[in-house]
Amino acid sequence: MMRLELVKRPQRSMLFSALSPFIAFVLTMIAGAIMFALLGVNPLNAFQIYFIEPISQVWQLHELAIKAAPLILIAVGLSVCYKANIWNIGAEGQFILGGIVGSIIPVLFPQFEGPLVLPLMLLLGMVGGAAYAAIPALLKTRFNTNEILTSLMLVYVAQLFLDWLVRGPWRDPKGFNFPQTIQFNESAILPELMPESGRANWGFVFALVAAVLIWILMSRMLKGFEVRVLGSSPRAGRFAGFGLNRMVFFAFLLSGALAGLAGISEVSGAIGQLQPVISPGYGFTAIIVAFLGRLNPLGIVAAGLVLALTYLGGEAVQSALGISDKVARVFQGMLLFFVLGCDTLIHYRIRLIGLAAPKLETAPKLEEAR
Amino acid sequence: MSANQDGANLLEVRGLTKVFGTLTACDHVDLNIARGEIHALLGENGAGKSTLVKMLFGSLEPNSGEIFWNGQAVRITSPGVAKKLGIGMVFQHFSLFEALTAAENIALSLDDGSPIGTIAAKARALSYSYGLPLDPESLVGDLSVGERQRIEIIRCLLQTPQLVILDEPTSVLTPQEADKLFETLERLRAEGKSILYISHRLEEVKRICDRATVLRHGKVVGHCNPRKETAASLARMMVGNEVQAVVRAPAEGIETAPSLLEIRALTRKPATPFSIPLRNINLNVRAGEVIGIAGVAGNGQGEFFESVSGEVLQHDAASVRIRGKDAGGLTITGRRLMGAAFVPEERLGHGAAPRMKLSENLLLSRHATDGKVFVGAGGMVKGGAIYSAAQRIINAMDVRKSAPDPEAAALSGGNLQKFIVGRELDRRPDVMVVNQPTWGVDAGAAAHIRQALIELARSGSAVLVISQDLDELFEISDAIAVMHNGELSKPLPIAEATFERIGLLMGGAEPGHAEHTLETA
After folding, report:
1. Given an 8 Å threshold on Cβ–Cβ distance, is B21 in contact with A11?
2. Which helix (H) or strand (E) holds B158?
3. Which residue of B lies nearest to A244 if distances are taken between CA atoms?
4. Residues on chain A touching B366 (C-beta within 8 angstroms)
5. With an 8 Å Cβ cutoff, are B336 and A369 in contact?
6. Which of A319, A266, A259 is nearest to A80 (CA)?
7. Rounded to 5 degrees, what are φ and ψ at B359?
8. Helix ranges (DSSP H) in A84-116
9. Which of A218-232, B155-169, B243-257 has the lowest mean pLDDT?
10. Residue A316 maps to a domain
11. B259-268, strands of its sheet edge to edge
């Protein structure tokens, strides 16, 4: 009889805690190489196409920033939730609602133009995401429901709602029955940062600013302290006079607002109209980003760039090698798997409990010998 | 070595060592336990007693050293092996399912498939023969702590052990219940069984133990016959130097002093099926006095502390009054702002966040009361201010630590408690409510904390101390009230209080304190 047991380590190694994301990355590379080899592709060649080529030219870096922006924005919000031990899994839905609510002005009032349009859209996007996130917060505080389930289920509601909108009431009447809204007018488009070199828009700046602000919040402010105390020891938080229910709302509204901002930034920046699908799973991938970045906003910026690369690489291997772009999902999944695995092994060590039966037999024998 | 007669010893331990990271919890410990003796294992908290016992019971594996059982070298790799050898253990913290009956709990641990009726009958017979009457059909949730301990003891004895290890067994008993337990232990000894008795209560050890092994900082500092020692000499062996006695100057003029903390007809319904309701509690704590609340654990002290501190709010705002103003509807922050300070029983996870630095833990209870000092414009925490305030408390309370500003979990229990008490004392609160001020704290630190509480009272504050340690309450209180089954007795002035009277109240000898209600109403 053999069994595995996880034994808590008395101390966490600071070195390995810091190295963990990098070890996870290397392990992902190794597993990825095996996967490519099994698919009949030379791994080195595939890696070249997957990880190097998508960022070898300036315009491609712009594409990277476009993909990284929503990931970072959503993930820094989620990091606050997860630090507070509140599990918002529904950022994808909040992203979509942010996109929908933010699009009210350009879709329903296309004649409204001017410098006010964009700030209003962004604001509405944040309100939309926050309001949608308030639903699981309310359910949790009122009825003690599990926020993982409610926030996740609301993602599908949001996806179908968007699908209905663009096929029904918001469909472009002159759009040849394509399921999409009208193209946003010029003042509803998020401007590009450096139009001469690539498409990257202000969304990336929002992401960096949000990361810095959340970093200050979490490390320097009383509110961040409250988040950390309630997340790590709720009873001590109650002793400190911090309210858990208020924290549930704070964390959900903040992460919802950031996801909503990401949503409207994506719609008004990269897409320019509403379509049935506006996200390749940013809200879910951001969960990986949050953990790969150690729930630290500055780490999340780096992690967001890495995960954005997996999207670009997936597209690249599809066109160059004819491998399904689902390979991007595989890489993301492996990365999360190895990050969580490394973290577990930093906190615990594995003990093999083997051959317990013979040991048990020796004990009675000793007694008999007497 | 005194006991070299091989074969006479049931258990011999040679050079047992256990290292946790940089800490050597047990350092070449030698221990001999003869057949038919009650052997005391003495030591302060953190001396390595629990680690040693866990190695004997197979919950921890030693790094080096040998264990001989009946003269044979053995490796105790799991509690199952220990049980097979004949080692039984009664833990300090019980592991019982409250929603199951006593017999069902016992059946779970025996795990040999015998029918529940057989087990219940055996348990009943055994419990009566050892003078620990127990109804195996009763739900654990309905039983007192003393009765729960009986289940643990019976469960252990059913496995017919030759060595029974008891970890601080009397810490949850009234003096009268403890006497019962001692009779049982003496009967076991008469049957030739051996007992390893872990305690820091020296009088007990002197009373029932034949030999003692004293641990300090993981090392054996001596073997002795406790009957030939005095409590003071045993304490010296444990601590390594004289412990300063607590000085309690008589409180003067407190009869006329204003009540700073008033509890009026405090009533609370049980929050869970197994928690204790509070029934019509009345108490006044005046400026300048220390009131102690005695009682066996689990009689409502935790619920009472939560209600007084404001972690749980009252419906009737007048049921808790601080400095003459209603506070029952205020949160813990509101009550702190009125001048009250609180120290809960649990240090890690309640009084302090384990993974946070001491300076951050300072902020935990003082972010509102000292908001101007510690929190700047826009909610920014002033790192320098909390750091220097934390250092001030560390110096004032003589907190020993390994780094300038370590995580709370890195401190020993006693040192963390000094910090948590010091954090509140540093505010000079008008009202101080402390639950178990020196639970698991070494003697030197305990004396320091007790002295500080007395001095706070004498400087004009009202101090309320909830404790299971009667010695402590007699040392520091001006009057002692007893909590039993959610009711609080009238406070007995210290001059009239005796162990006997308090012990009877703890056992519920005087239920229904109607007289008290009338008087304070």
Report:
1. yes
2. none
3. B311
4. none
5. no
6. A259
7. -65, -35
8. 91-102, 104-108
9. B243-257
10. no
11. B278-286, B259-268, B320-322, B325-326
Q: Are B9-239 and B252-339+430-521 the same fold in CATH?
A: yes
Give the HSE-up count for residue B60: Cα atoms under 13 Å, Cβ half-sphere: 22
Strand intervals (E) in B258-319: 259-268, 278-286, 290-294
Tell me whether residues B381 and A241 touch, CB distance under 8 A.
no
Contacts of B356 in chain A (CB under 8 A): 228-229, 232
pLDDT at A93 over 80: yes
* B272, burial (CB in 10 Å: exposed 0-12, middle 13-18, buried 19+): exposed
Please state which CATH number belongs to domain B252-339+430-521.
3.40.50.300
Question: For tokens 């067994």, what's the residue?
Answer: B169
Given an 8 Å threshold on Cβ–Cβ distance, is B380 in contact with A221?
Answer: yes
A149 contact partners, CB below 8 Å, separation of at least 6: none
The least confident of A28-37, A77-86, B43-52, B487-496 is: B43-52
Rounded to whole angstroms, the maximal C-alpha distance in chain B is: 74
Does B7 contact chain A (CB < 8 Å)?
A: no
Domain B9-239: which topology?
A: Rossmann fold (3.40.50)
Q: CB–CB of A221 and B378 under 8 A?
A: yes
**CB neighbours of residue B3 within 10 Å:** 15
How far is the C-alpha of B447 from the C-alpha of B451, rounded, in Å?
6
Distance in angstroms (rounded) separating the CA atoms of residues B72 and B255: 67
Phi, psi of B122 (to 5 degrees): -60, -45
Q: How far apart are CA A283 and CA A286, in angstroms?
A: 5
Domain ranges for chain B, please list them.
Answer: 9-239, 252-339+430-521, 349-428
* Cβ pair A370:B380 closer than 8 A: no
- Of A108, A153, A102, the C-alpha closest to A131 is A102
Q: Do A221 and B381 touch (CB under 8 A)?
A: yes
Contact B102, B134 (CB under 8 A): yes
From the list A10, A222, A359, the residue facing B367 with the nearest CB is A222
Residue whose structure tokens are 């302290």:
A225
In a domain, A151, yes or no: yes
How many C-beta atoms lie closer than 10 Å to residue B101's C-beta? 21
Q: Which of A130, A122, A277 is nearest to A203 (CA)?
A: A122
Domain span at A125: 63-305
State whether A241 and B342 contact (CB < 8 Å): no
| Helix or strand run (H / E) with residue A51 | none
In this structure, is residue A54 part of a structural domain?
no
The sign one gets for the Cα dihedral B357, B359, B364, B365 is: positive
pLDDT score, position B510: 63
Q: Per-residue pLDDT tens for B113-161?
A: 788 888 899 889 988 888 888 888 888 887 877 788 888 888 888 888 9
State the DSSP H helix or E strand holding residue A159, giving kind and residue range, or none if neither.
Answer: helix A147-167
In B149-208, at which residue ranges do the beta strands (DSSP E only) sit?
163-167, 194-199
Residue-level pLDDT at B3: 41
Mutate to test the interface with B, among A1, A11, A213, A225 (most CBs of B within 10 A): A225
Question: In this predicted structure, what is the pLDDT of residue A9?
Answer: 76
Chain B's closest residue to A235, CA to CA, is B350
Cβ within 8 Å of B, A 311-370: 356, 359-360, 362-364, 366-367, 369-370
**Across-strand partners of B431?**
B340, B462
Whether residue A67 is contained in a domain is answered as yes
Tally of domains within chain A = 1
The answer to whether A233 contacts B331, with C-beta atoms less than 8 Å apart, is: no
**Structure tokens given for A317:** 């291997």
In sequence order, which residues have a C-beta less than 8 Å from that of residue B297 and are 6 or more positions away?
A: B145, B171, B172, B468
The CA distance from B46 to the nearest CA of chain A, in Å, is 16
Distance in angstroms (rounded) separating the CA atoms of residues A227 and A220 = 12
Strands B23-34 and B9-20, how do they pair? Answer: antiparallel
CATH number of the domain residue A189 falls in: 1.10.3470.10
